[in-house]
Each structure stands twice: as structure tokens, then as C-alpha cells.
Amino acid sequence: MPVPDYQSLMRPLLEAVQDGQALHIREVSKRVAQTLQLSEEDLGEMLPSGKQATYTNRLGWAKTYLAKAGALSSEGRGIIRITERGREVLGRVAGRITQSDLQQYEEFQAFKQRTIEEKPTTIKLSVTETMSIESPEERLSSLYAELNANLAEELLQQVKERSPAQFERLVVEILVAMGYGGNVRDAGQALGRSGDNGIDGLIKQDPLGLDRIYLQAKRWQNTVHSPEIRTFSGSLTYHKATKGVFMTTSTFSDGAKATAEQIGNIILQDGEQIARLMIDYGVGVLTRETYQIRRVDAEYFEEL
Fold it and tell me: Of 52, 188, 215, 244, which is least surrounded by CB within 10 A?
């Protein structure tokens, strides 16, 4: 049989994990394929790009949307488990599960709304209203924003699961990709381990090191508050650095943001912003597809 669309895969996916076990997505994929009696030929069908199997792509999106709705939980690297909400969805929805069935959950609504708000021109409408008035190029923009929003969340989850040493290397590579620190070796030597799941040190802002930035990066779960920012400000003065960047895998409280703004020379980067930097500067991500949007060159025809 042909590979079902991603929405048609939502119910089989939930049913594959309804026993409550924490399973790797590879095992879930096998279970779903067996349930649907997909042949090797079906599983070998590729997307038009030829870079990924259609089944793998569609099952991945089914998992993503169910997770955004809280029907699945992440138990580690590639490990998923059904939640009570997932069981509720199975019991409530008869037959095929679609995005409309997930729309009643606030988490899913928030996820879809973020993709709309990230578009270059923000018009706050429902997903259905937006799709109905969008031009083809606007729809492509919407899909691009949705892909990036999902990618950012996946990246942040990966970052949070790294060890302190891995997080240190990641921060160094982000800084170098942005043009700071010279190269990975220079930046790595400039950083010193603080022993509290964080790293700090001086990073060159320019190739000659004439201007220096003091960095602190915390692989934390808890929110960063004002005292940490004030302590960081003192470190800037001690190290004779003119600017500071405080990076964390968690979030900053409103008080911490107000303190940094009042001090004036400290930039805050939370977990979501770190993920965005990774996307923007190509750290930990691969380019799967590249599309060129062509338009008619009116001047060309006028000059013929």
C-alpha cells in the first residue's frame, strides 16, 4: 500500500506505544510499518529530493505534532512514551487523527501560533484563516517558519541532554561560527571551567584581540535571576572586559532582564536564542533541501 500521509500515521503511532513502554523511535517505526503492512518497496519510497524516505519523513512529522500536543513525551535521545493525554486522544477520536483534533490543546495552539508570528509580516489569525488568505509564497514562508520552530525546539532538547563538557565545546563552536574567538582552539583556550555546569572566560571580539568580551554560559534547568547577573557584572569589571554575554540553556527572569538592561553592557541569551543562533550559523544542523524561488525578469523582456 502507498505510504499514508502524516496525519494518517498519528493513530498507528499512538497505538504502537499505548502499552506505556518507553521506546526508541526506530522500534516504534517498525511496529507502525508492521501494523500497516508496508512492504520494503513502500518503505524505500523516497521524497522528490531523494534525500529521505517518505515514510521516515511522515512518521517524524506525526511524532512532532503529537509531541507538541502533549500526547507523547520525550524520555531521552530518540525515546518516546505515550502520555495520559495521548490515551485520551485515542479514546476521544474515532478513526483518523488530524491536526484539528489536536487544536483544542493550548500547547499545540501555542506551537502553531509561534510559526505564524515568526513570519516576516505578522498577522495574528487562526491557522485556518491564515492558510485561506495566503499566497503560494506566503504559504511557503509559513512552512519554513514551522520547520524552523520545530528545529529550534529539537536543538534545545539536544543541548540540554549534553554533558557539561559537550556544552562547553558547543558554546565555543557557536562563538567561532559567529566570528568571535578567532578559531576553535583560540576560543577553547580562552575559556575556563567553573565547576558548576557553566563556563566562563574572555573571548576576542576582533581578530587582534583589541576588544574583549567576557562570557558566562550555564547549562542550567532553573531560571537565572538578578543576583547571577550582578555577580557577572562584577566579573566584567574584574577582568577589564567592556562587554559581557550571559548564555543559559534555561531562561531569564524579568528581574534578570531588567538588571542587564540597567547595567547596559550585558547581553542575555536563553536556551531558545541559543538554538536560533545554531540555526542561523549552521552549528549542529544540516541543510536538507534548498529551493530557489524564481520570478519573471520584467527588465529582460523590456530590453529584448
Answer: 52
Question: Which cell numbers hold the place of 88?
Answer: 485520551
Q: Where are the domains of the chain?
A: 1-104, 164-280
Backbone phi and psi for residue 192, each to the nearest 5 degrees, phi listed first = -125, 140
The candidate with the shortest Cα–Cα distance to 137, out of 299, 302, 292, is 292
The larger pLDDT score, comparing residue 232 to residue 146, is at 232
DSSP the chain: -PPPPTGGGHHHHHHHTTT---EEHHHHHHHHHHHTT--HHHHT-B-TTSSSBHHHHHHHHHHHHHHHTTSEEEEETTEEEE-HHHHHHHHHS-S---HHHHTTSHHHHHHHHHHHHTSSS-----HHHHHHH--HHHHHHHHHHHHHHHHHHHHHHHHHTS-HHHHHHHHHHHHHHTT-SSSHHHHHHHEEE-SSSEEEEEEESSTT-SSEEEEEEE--SSPB-HHHHHHHHHHHHHTT-SEEEEEESS-B-HHHHHHHHHH-SEEEE-HHHHHHHHHHTTSS-------------HHHHHT-
How far is it, in rounded angstroms, from Cα 13 to Cα 23? 11
- Over 60: is that where the pLDDT of 126 sits? no
Does domain 1-104 fall under CATH 1.10.10? My reply is: yes
pLDDT tens digits for range 203-219: 777 666 667 788 888 88
| Residue 121 confidence (pLDDT) above 70 | no
pTM for this entry = 0.65
